[in-house]
Amino acid sequence: MGANENKSGGWRTNKWIRAAIPALLLHCSIGTVYCWSIFSQEIADYIGFTKGATEWAFSFAIFFLGMSAAFLGNVVEKDIHKSSLIAAICFAAGMAGTGFFIYYGGLHKGSTLALIGIYVCYGFIMGIGLGTGYLSPVKTLMLWFEDRKGLATGLAVAGFGAAKAIASPIMQAMLDNLGEGGIYKMFIILACVYFVMMFVGHLLLKKPEGWHEPQGKEERKSIMSVIKTKPIGNYIGIWLMFYINITCGLALISQEKMIVKCIGLAGVVGLISTVSAVFNAGGRLGFSAWADTMKDRNTIYKLIFILSIAFTALVIVTNGIQNGEGNTFLVVLVLCLIFVVNAGYGGGFSNVPTLLSDHYGMSNISAIHGLTLSAWAFAGLTGNQMATWIVGHFGEEVSLEHGLADGTVETIIVNPTGYQHVLYATIVLYIIALIICLVMVKPTDKALEAKKAKAEKKAASAE
């Protein structure tokens, strides 16, 4: 590109316009998948099914997010324009299809076809859009922001985490004001809005001019051959600690609202949910930007697991969830646990692509990152279900009374002992993750070189 073209069309070579903004447009759209809890009960009531039956739509969405990322990683690697267009079409079509089947379910209460249609549209079709949309901008960001890869990927992935905080009040307002059938109307309207956002992101997204994408069999190595450049246990360790961090995060986050009610904060559940979403997004940006200053990004995972273990242990020892109501110290302690786990959950997502790039290079990073996101797929099926099973099999449900703003009293059914038992499972898993982090994931070449240089400097000063 000539100098004159650079001056007249600087936006074409601007890393914010060609990478950061399109990444945010894509991730702020697909991140609204986490708004499911806002309208899941509305869907169940409208189509005549239990909430438990409709919950599988969200689990399928997360599963197919991870699996589509794993199987379509090579498509993203070869052509981000094709993958980002697939993401825009599938995500919007999935949302619109979900709206149609909710409408159909409203006309035919209890229709199995309506429920299966929602599974297919919200779970499978949207899931493909989620996986390809999540992957598409990540490598491009790392190429444009070569010196601050963590900050760049953290910014985009923070958009995914912040989408819930941004979209939740908008969705709630739409449900409150669209009248009869507002639930399916909301989906169709948002399908159009998000398609426009993602299509603009697709048009803007572009890799740097100087980047040469490996072509052909000689230049482009298979994923397994790249992974085998390090001991195979190294990759398995990264996959496992990523999986455990998501599983534990989902286990606690899925029970978050009921835990907050348990400790006497039923009146501010919405506010706490928004604050925890901010911590989730902040962890994605903060931990990844912090990792840019470290010689080994794996240090961030050590910090995440140590903090999670420490706060979980404190709430276990003090029986914080069971004894929290009326005790300010325990309330603060439980809230700190929720916020720390949310931040660590988000930080785990934003650090994995840069950690993988430090270990395996940039050439196949989209494909390797996609394969690693299969951990998210399996965690999406196990995290919530593990917590639900524990709460259903331990402790007893009790009634709590909560005063409303209009002077009436609401009765809440909770299981404090069950929520406390969830922490026993998560602390064991966090400890296993920390051991994996310390033993299986080896230091990067950069970290080893820095350690060697430090030792040589120390030896020279001693002489």
Characterization of the model:
This protein has 463 residues and is an all-alpha fold. The chain has 2 domains: 16-206, Growth Hormone, Chain: A (Up-down Bundle), CATH 1.20.1250.20; 223-445, Up-down Bundle (Growth Hormone, Chain: A), CATH 1.20.1250. It is built from 20 helices and 2 strands. It has helices spanning 3-8, 15-30, 36-47, 51-78, 80-107, 112-144, 149-177, 182-204, 216-219, 223-227, 232-254, 256-262, 269-291, 298-318, 320-323, 328-360, 365-372, 374-393, 416-439, 445-462; strands spanning 398-403, 409-414. It has a two-stranded antiparallel ribbon with strand order 1-2. Strand 1 (398-403) and strand 2 form a beta hairpin. Helix 4 (51-78) runs antiparallel to helix 5 (80-107). The protein is globular, with a radius of gyration of 23 Å. The termini are far apart.
Number of helices: 20
CATH class of the largest domain: Mainly Alpha
- Sheet with most strands: 2 strands, antiparallel
How many domains would you count in the coordinates? 2
CATH superfamily of the largest domain: MFS general substrate transporter like domains
The helix/strand order is HHHHHHHHHHHHHHHHHHEEHH
Strand order of the largest sheet: 1-2
Report the radius of gyration as a whole number of Å: 23 Å
Q: Indicate the CATH topology of the largest domain.
A: Growth Hormone, Chain: A
Share of β-strand residues: under 5%
Give the N-terminus to C-terminus distance in angstroms: 53 Å
Large-scale geometry: globular
Helix content: over 70%
Which structural class fits the helix and strand makeup? mainly alpha
CATH architecture of the largest domain: Up-down Bundle
